[in-house]
Specification:
single chain; mainly alpha; 129 residues; 76% helix
Length: 129
């Protein structure tokens, strides 16, 4: 019995398959990580120019908004890393393309198992724990 064709959501090119959405998320997290690294290199370079300016900039990072941004950064790094491993398996493992859904579920499980404890611990420090 042939499988039913998937219905394409109106107004989008994305068909909802795990490979398509992981592609989008991988690009978004990659761009976010790139901009973090850019800012990190620039603010760290301040130490050579003016240690006082460096200390002042680093001091401004010690607030709850930046603490929440750090949560987003760690979430992005974890997803990007695990999804990158998934992509390597899909590209170089003969059974990878057939197991994309299982691999994506594995990425999600690993992400939750590592991210949730980090969030709990980090936010307890950010908000006075």
């Amino acid at each position: 019995m042939p499988s039913k064709p998937r219905i394409i959501p109106p107004g989008t090119l994305y068909r909802g398959h795990e490979g398509m959405w992981s592609w989008v998320a991988h690009r978004i997290t990659g761009v976010g990580i790139f901009f973090f690294l850019l800012v990190h290199v620039l603010d760290t370079a301040l130490v050579r120019v003016s240690p006082e300016a460096y200390n002042e900039v680093i001091g401004t990072y010690k607030n709850p908004v930046v603490g929440l941004m750090e949560v987003g950064l760690v979430g992005a790094i974890l997803f990007h890393a695990f999804n990158g491993i998934r992509l390597i398996l899909v590209d170089f493992w003969a059974k990878g393309p057939r197991n994309q859904r299982k691999l994506m579920i594995g990425v999600g499980v690993l992400w939750v198992v590592l991210f949730v404890p980090f969030v709990i611990r980090h936010l307890s420090h950010v908000f006075g724990g």
